[in-house]
Amino acid sequence: MKMEMKKKISICIVLAASVMLLASGCKKSPAESLSLWTDSAPAKQALTEYIKSVTDKKSPDYIPVEDRIAIFDLDGTLILETDPIYFDQQIFDFRVLDDPDYKDRATEEEKLVAHNSRDLHKFPEMSAAREKMVAGVYAGMSLEEFDSFVRGFMDTNQPGFIGMKRGQTFYKPMVQVVNFLIENEFTVYVSSGSDRLLIRPLVFENLHLPATQIIGSDTTVLCVNQGGKDGLSYTFKAGDQLMLGGDSIVKNLQMNKVVTIVREIGKKPVLAFGNSGTDASMLNYSINGNKYRALAFMLMCDDLVREYGDMAKADKMKKASEENGWIPVSMRDDWKTIYGDGVTRR
Asked: What is d(CA 333, CA 319) in angstroms, rounded to the nearest whole number?
């Protein structure tokens, strides 16, 4: 009987230890979670210290789970933007110059913008006219057709690199940051200047974030039978199908990013990540007047070997970081890799 009792006690101890081990094993250490970052990276050190503090219930910096909101810009913060140009412009160029379903209908102005972008790497100035043009080339496509179109483009080779598709251009160290935050019960949002319907499949396939956490610029969506009727005057009916209307509603950049946070999230982020001046409002809104301790990070495109960096922009963002209290991230110095093994710059 004593032997049996000892066995039962031993089994209970082992089971209890196993449960504790499994529970602790669910969360990786910061070193494991951010293994693609150099140990000396100031941004890595700042982030890991911050997460340790705000997730500790005994800490004065503790943030309840429901208020752990992190927001990321997309182009240049999570994905490639420097070769040859932004993802949304690349797919516009393809639509206008190569898509057999559209290129014969493309206007001379659309062709000129696409050629300048593709051949000269010259991005058109941000303007209402440019946004209307971009939205217009997809007018009439059903939402399903557009999603399929985007996914097909994602599966094409990324110019400027060997071993990478256009849908795989996420910065591996930043993907680790997203996963690290999710492991620590943060709700992660992406806020992009690109159309939200365009980036949903791209972000979902790489970060597995739901559509409700992907914010972007907006264009009109209509019913195929709506005609010219206003949305207030038309009723969706059984069998109706939605399509892209071809008009721009809002460009989600600068102050507009703050407005979409207010409208769609309803809470101020405690972590914000960007890479350019068009993210400045989002970063400053997050860290100023926040009832919780908050941090903002600014990526600098300073890698000229593994990436198509821009030192003038990197220096500008470093200076802006000093002026605004953002934590700079050096792609060159802070990351062990950018796109992972098997991907090289041409």
From this structure: 17
